[in-house]
Specification:
heterodimer, A: 5-stranded mixed β-sheet, 2 helices, B: 134 residues, alpha/beta, 8-stranded mixed β-sheet, 25% helix
């Protein structure tokens, strides 16, 4: 199981938890497992086309997965995925 | 209401002036609620490197979140500068506001005297809140 840390804004969609566990060998598989357990997370994590939502940052330990393999990035049981909203404006 | 430690405002202002003419940005950490108390500042790189928009560099955001958690608080908001317009959230700020519980601080450098205002942004609605410097 991979530990997934959620920002406050996503917690209501996951039963209020700050951290959840999910199974999978890649970020995409972990997300699929998460969405299976918490369907309300689907539109927060992924676009309708199944791509990583651009308003979401996903870190595998200390690294942004956009610079790794995106949703194909491999994850292991000792890893932590940290999800954070993109912070931007004008 | 948002309570700002004096050194928080001084650091935010210094970073905004240092970043001009580009927009400067960063996070604040402390305690949520009403009043919320901002005790710590986490300057961030504006990944957009723009005078009109900002994007908090994602790794700076991660670092701020971890540092704030280690300090026993939580990230409670974001600040950024408007270098040529008033201290009021732009349509981009409203559209991109990531968290309805956050405090959105805008520092205007348009006039000789910089101004700081703080807002809550929920469901596209802007509500200004009082800021108290301590």
């Amino acid at each position: 199981m991979v530990d997934v840390r959620l920002p406050t804004v996503l917690r209501p969609a996951a039963g209020g938890s700050a951290s959840v566990s999910a199974e999978g060998g890649t970020v995409g598989e972990v997300f699929a497992d998460l969405v299976g357990r918490h369907p309300a997370l689907r539109e927060q994590l992924l676009t309708p086309e199944g791509e990583l939502h651009r308003h979401l940052n996903v870190f595998l330990n200390d690294d942004d997965i956009r610079y790794l393999g995106k949703l194909d990035t491999s994850v292991g049981e000792a890893d932590t995925l940290t999800l954070m909203p993109a912070v931007a404006g004008g | 209401m948002l309570v700002l430690a004096g050194e928080v405002w001084e650091k935010v202002l210094a970073k905004c002036l240092e970043g001009a003419p580009l927009e400067a940005c960063g996070l604040i950490g402390g305690r949520g609620g009403d009043p919320a108390v901002a005790s710590r500042v986490y300057p961030a790189t504006n990944a957009a490197a723009s005078a009109r928009v900002y994007t908090v560099e994602p790794r700076d955001l991660l670092r701020a979140d971890r540092d704030e958690e280690a300090a026993g608080g939580e990230l409670i908001g974001v600040w950024h500068s408007h270098t040529h317009t008033e201290a009021w959230p732009s349509p981009t700020d409203v559209a991109a506001a990531p968290d309805p519980d956050w405090h959105y601080l805008v520092v205007s450098l348009r006039d000789l005297e910089p101004t700081l205002r703080s807002f809550r942004i929920r469901d596209g609605n802007i509500e200004e809140e009082p800021v108290v410097l301590q």
